[in-house]
């Protein structure tokens, strides 16, 4: 009898532990489409169902690509914007966002992170107003996990140049002259009246 009771208690504990994910997943399947799910979530935010909406923002952010890989871009787009709207009136949403961001950072610092983790870290840090953390993380990866840092370089390149950390950039820019030309072309295309790039940028390489 005692063994049976222990087994039942263990099963109950396991079931309870899995309830949030399974319930939210079942909700998603019952609605049938991403559009319906996002519409329901948006309505919850608008009607101040704050905790209900936050739980589902976090769940979808962490599980979108597991449902369908095509949902991945929604996470750092429409969903994240909705999450920020919620956070504007419900501070707990900022705390939850920071927690998710910190989970991504921890995975990246362990050397087990991937492009999606770095993209999430960057997007969440931007919304939290803590973009400096991304550059700091990249400098850490450059020292400890250089192969991963090289993989993430295209996503952080702009921030590195904005920070004028040219010493760091030199490790990833294989052809400085070509890089400078590319940046000059982009500068001129966005500012047609510009005739030359800043002298400081010329000397950077």
In short:
The protein is 80% helix and 0% strand.
End-to-end distance, in Å? 76 Å
Q: Which structural class do the helices and strands define?
A: mainly alpha
Characterize the main sheet: none
What is the count of DSSP helices, taking H or I runs of 4+ residues?
A: 11
Q: What's the alpha carbon Rg, rounded to whole Å?
A: 22 Å
Uncertain segments: 1-21, 199-205
Q: Which percent bin holds the helix content?
A: over 70%
Order of helices and strands: HHHHHHHHHHH
| Estimated share of beta-strand residues | under 5%
Give the beta-strand count.
Answer: 0
Shape: elongated
Mean pLDDT: 81
How would you describe this structure to a colleague?
With 205 residues, this protein is mainly α. It is built from eleven helices and no strands. The longest helix has 30 residues, at 2-31. It is elongated and about 55 Å long. The N and C termini lie far apart (76 Å). Residues 1-21 and 199-205 have low confidence and may be disordered.
